[in-house]
Design a protein that fits this description.
alpha+beta, Cytochrome p450, three-stranded antiparallel β-sheet, 18 helices, 12 strands
């Protein structure tokens, strides 16, 4: 669950804060700000600023700004002033050390709020703190342990889908099949979210929920990117489709919440052990209050959005790299075969799959699903010695920082050993932050890593996956999350010598 897009943002969950907000001016003497120089400024159109350049190649624009102008750079998007911050120290300053001086009132968050309401991703202030306090226990490791079996069940179901005769061009050893791996990973993680969040309650509505989520996500990606907001209010077909899909989701989710409340009141011992039951049962430790149905609706939709697309893209990009690095795949498969043999992976295997975890971490270094985090400065601030005016947008890109040559030797090389034997950067360094950081670090980090590790172990054991196109033909699409544009065409091949 994290932040995204150049005008936008998306990050989170987070640790609980009990202290009251503090203004930035209380932390920064005015004289310090006045003496600080302005950062380098990118030259752009007199009216549009850098909008055309960033729309033409968003990631290339961000990387070029850092490599040519430094770690704090001013850019302009029409009347909006933005600062790209690409140093670990600057990221730590914004997300952790001086986080009270920033809020999430960015264009993207405001768009997402129209869909997600006041969920953990989009809410702020005291309301967010309360929601966080209530939701946090549901994501403790002891509760997540109950979901490990579901991760494995759905991974095995995907392997069965791949094994169906109609999937293959021919039968027998060496037969192959063409698939869009991105679509397959979206499907399996969607099923996982449906079961872990709503148990089997969602099964009868699975097709409706899946289609509606696809419609609203695609429309949200368009709305966040389009420069003119009035378009979304026109009664054109895409707007009508979006509103219908949003209404369908609302009706289903609110019905499930109502049914679950009634079930908990009648026979609490028979209620499913899933995230909805946990969220419904939790109480604020300070007030004793729980969530209203509307608050539960917002959190359910937030978890649907954040809980499947990020993990699906992480797994998709991991296979993109494995297909080009056979030595890494061989080592990964050796770890899986040695540890698991033919048996099903379990929760207890997750910490032992150290190389699998390192492979995922390195994939998220080069292709972080949450590729951009946005904040708005509430007061004047100084970042890495440069002044940042009140009201300006601050952009923090894991994609850029994770490739920063000053912090990552051979930064463009896929090398999972960076995360082995104690060599991984400390979280507090903010050299690596695929799940955000500070008080609003992603609430689902453990969930996502457990899920991805178990699924990856199943897939590398069961099937060979290779790219069906040249690597350079795979283009990046930085939307709400970082996707391969048009999917990732792959060739599946039954693994001829699986572990025995």
């Amino acid at each position: 669950m994290s932040e995204c897009s150049v005008y936008r943002g998306a990050d989170d969950g987070a640790t609980t804060e009990s202290e009251p907000p503090m203004s930035a001016t209380a932390l920064l003497p005015a004289r310090t700000y006045e003496l600080a120089p302005a950062p380098p400024r990118l030259i752009g159109d007199p009216v549009l600023g850098n909008i055309r350049a960033v729309m033409r190649d968003t990631l290339g624009f961000l990387v070029k700004a850092q490599t040519e102008h430094g770690d704090v750079v001013r850019c302009d998007f029409g009347p909006m002033v933005a600062h790209l911050v690409s140093s670990p120290s600057g990221v730590r300053h914004v997300l952790q050390d001086n986080h009270r001086a920033y809020d999430k009132q960015t264009r993207g968050y405001l768009k997402l709020r129209g869909l997600l309401g006041q969920g953990l991703l989009t809410s702020e202030g005291d309301f967010w703190k309360r929601q966080r306090r209530i939701a946090q226990p549901a994501f403790h490791r002891e509760h997540l342990a109950s979901f490990a079996d579901r991760f494995v069940i759905e991974g095995e179901a995907q392997l069965e889908t791949w094994a169906k005769p109609e999937t293959w061009a021919q039968t027998g050893p060496g037969s192959t099949a063409k698939r869009d791996l991105s679509a397959d990973m979206m499907a399996v993680t969607m099923r996982i979210v449906g079961h872990t969040l709503l148990s089997t309650d969602v099964s009868d509505d699975a097709a409706t929920v899946g289609h509606a989520l696809h419609v609203v996500l695609e429309e949200m990606n368009k709305r966040i990117h389009q420069p003119f907001g009035f378009v979304e209010w026109l009664p054109v077909p895409r707007t009508i489709r979006y509103l219908r899909a949003k209404r369908a989701l609302d009706l289903i989710v609110m019905r499930l919440i109502s049914e679950r409340r009634q079930r908990l009141e009648r026979t609490p011992s028979e209620a499913p052990v899933d995230l909805l039951t946990m969220l419904m049962s939790m109480r604020d430790a300070d007030t004793g209050e729980g969530m209203t149905d509307r608050q539960l609706r917002d959190e359910v939709l937030t978890l649907f959005l954040a809980g499947h697309e990020t993990t699906a893209n992480a797994l998709t990009w991991t296979y993109f790299h494995l297909a080009q690095n056979p030595a890494v795949l061989t080592r990964l498969r050796a770890e899986v075969d040695s540890l698991l043999g033919d048996r099903r992976p379990t929760l207890q295997d997750v910490p032992r799959l150290s190389y699998a975890k390192a492979v995922l971490q390195e994939s998220m270094r080069l292709h972080p699903p949450a590729w951009l985090i946005g904040r708005r400065a509430l007061e004047p601030d100084v970042i890495d010695g440069y002044r940042v005016p009140k009201g300006s947008l601050v952009l923090l890109s894991p994609y850029v920082v994770h490739r920063h040559p000053a912090h990552w030797p051979a930064s463009e090389t896929f090398d999972p050993s960076r995360f082995l034997d104690g060599r991984a950067p400390e979280p507090k360094s903010f050299q690596y932050f695929p799940f955000g950081g500070g008080p609003r670090v992603c609430i689902g980090t453990q969930f996502a890593m457990m899920e991805a590790t178990l699924l990856l172990s199943l897939f590398v054991r069961g099937v060979d996956i290779s790219l069906a196109v040249a690597p350079e033909a795979v283009k990046l699409e930085p939307l709400i999350t970082l996707r391969p544009k048009g999917g990732l065409p792959v060739t599946l091949k039954r693994r001829e010598h699986p572990a025995r």
